[in-house]
Design goal:
The complex is a heterodimer. By secondary structure, chain A is an all-alpha fold. Chain A is built from three helices and no strands. The N and C termini of chain A lie far apart (50 Å). Chain B has one domain. Helix content of chain B is 67%, strand content 3%. Chain B contains 13 helices and four strands. A two-stranded antiparallel ribbon of chain B has the order 1-2. A two-stranded antiparallel ribbon of chain B has the order 3-4. In chain B, helix 2 packs parallel to helix 12, helix 9 runs antiparallel to helix 13 and helix 10 packs across helix 12. Classes of the chains: A mainly alpha, B mainly alpha. Chains A and B meet through helix 1, helix 2 and helix 3 of A and helix 2, helix 3, helix 4, helix 5 and helix 6 of B.
């Protein structure tokens, strides 16, 4: 039953978000103008396209995030049953985390975590 | 035949609950904007909104109405579909998180047990995480589709910040999960029943203070609230990802931000501050009518939520904004190692106690 109700809630949420936009589209006045459609960058004429390459630093963080996020997913099932698996489970997770922590340390030493 | 099988009472119950929750979220979001202006005014020795209604209480309605009537401008070079899709997604994900939060204890009504929770799924916490991380797509798509350099920079900042702090948030919650042994929010609340039991505080905050502080800092970052409001940074990026937005699409972004604040306050009070539990609730449930008990539980929960929202506001008007390198340093070099240590300590203590 849970999933069905969730879908109901999603439909309500979409209806609300879409409804607001449609209502405002229906009742608000509109006029077009060449200057209105320009990007607003503090009044100075825009130079070049806006979809440009950006700092590689963001990309590095995304890569490290990917590794750690998967690690997180692996740890959730262990966390739920930690009381029943006992010491063996803790030792295993410590080894697992040690390896990952080495990875973090490696990224740290390589300067991937340093913002340029 | 299929129509006969549907439990109509269940459907009506859930639909009315969903409608109520959505309306309450919106009302609280609207009045959070009012409260934010009032709080900032008080902290800066001003008066704040005072013209519309007594104490300016009608100001949110006036603002909402104004947003509907504003002209909507879509930049010529913007990607039109994604430009409209972004705010819709942000709003929908903000509203969806409310599904798994238990707003109060179950009660009997007309021979049925009514649960004050839209969906009691056993992976409630994972659901919250999933939806919260979907939320960043709303910002990213909206900022990218605007075709504006400020918006693009802001959306990349938002994405990078959100993923960095999501890790520390998840790690701080793992320590909590080890204590509760369940991902269902209803069960987590039930485990924190009352306030004091056999010489222990039942609320998780007293068992996981470090986890709570990590979670709190990450919540600030996930919400893009000051001192982590780099994606918005009104003084350097002109409000960032919603710079090109106008009319109700801007309204959706602003509303969704406050709804997110409301929901994350609710999640924090469920996980760490006992949700709808309060000291002396057993006495109330034994001696007073059932509706008083339900009503008091829900009120206590909302008082906790409002306290958290006010805390968010006090912090915003107290602390200056971080620099981006400081933000990344705090996330990766302080919070993540701290959360890992917290997790190991919790694991050790749990095994030591169960021996």
């Amino acid at each position: 039953m849970g999933a069905g109700v969730l879908i109901l809630l999603i439909i309500c949420g979409v209806a609300f978000a879409g409804g607001g936009i449609i209502l405002s589209w229906a009742i608000a006045k509109r006029s077009t103008n060449l200057v209105k459609g320009e990007p607003y960058e503090c009044g100075i004429p825009t130079s070049g396209t806006s979809w440009i390459q950006f700092n590689v630093g963001y990309y590095l963080f995304a890569l490290i995030f990917l590794v750690f996020d998967v690690e997180l997913v692996f740890m959730y099932p262990w966390a739920v049953v930690v009381k029943s698996v006992g010491m063996v489970g803790l030792v295993e997770i410590v080894i697992f985390m040690f390896i990952l922590f080495m990875g973090l340390l490696y990224a740290y030493r390589k300067g991937a975590l340093k913002w340029m | 035949m299929l129509l006969m099988q549907i439990d109509w009472f269940f459907l009506v119950e859930k639909l009315s609950l969903i409608t109520t929750i959505l309306l309450i979220s919106l009302a609280i979001a609207a009045y959070a904007t009012w409260a934010e202006r009032k709080v900032s005014a008080i902290m800066q020795d001003r008066i704040g909104p005072s013209r519309a209604g007594i104490f300016g209480l009608l100001q949110p309605l006036a603002d909402g109405g104004k947003l509907f009537f504003k002209e909507e401008i879509i930049p010529t070079n913007a990607n039109k579909f994604i430009f409209i899709f972004g705010p819709c997604l942000f709003m929908t994900t903000a509203l969806m998180t409310s599904a798994v939060i238990p707003w109060g204890p179950s009660f009997e009504f007309a021979g049925h047990t009514v649960s004050l929770q839209v969906a009691d799924i056993n992976i409630g916490m994972l659901f919250v995480f999933g939806v919260v991380s979907l939320g960043v797509y709303g910002i990213m798509l909206g900022g990218w589709a605007s075709n504006n350099k400020f918006s693009l920079l802001s959306s990349i900042r938002a994405a990078s910040q959100a993923i960095s702090y999501e890790l520390a948030m998840g790690l701080s919650l793992i320590a909590l999960l080890m204590l509760t042994g369940s991902l269902s929010l209803r069960e987590i609340v039930d485990q924190q029943h009352g306030f004091w039991n056999d010489g222990y505080f039942t609320w998780n905050f007293f068992k996981q203070p470090l986890g709570f502080f990590i979670f709190l800092v990450c919540a600030f970052a996930e919400l893009n609230r000051a001192p982590f409001d780099l994606p918005e940074a009104d003084s350097e990026l002109n409000m960032g990802y919603h710079l090109e937005y106008s009319s109700m699409k801007l309204g959706l972004y602003l509303f969704a931000e406050y709804i997110n604040m409301f929901i994350s306050s609710a999640v924090m009070s469920v996980l760490f501050f006992g949700g709808y539990n309060y000291p002396g609730m057993d006495w109330v449930s034994a001696n007073l009518p059932a509706w008083v008990f339900t009503f008091s539980c829900v009120s206590v929960f909302f008082i906790k939520i409002i306290a958290f929202i006010l805390f968010f506001m006090f912090i915003r008007w107290t602390l200056p904004r971080f620099r981006y390198d400081q933000l990344m340093k705090l996330g990766w070099k302080s919070l993540i190692p701290l959360a890992l240590v917290n997790m190991l300590i919790t694991g050790g203590v749990i095994l030591w106690l169960t021996k």
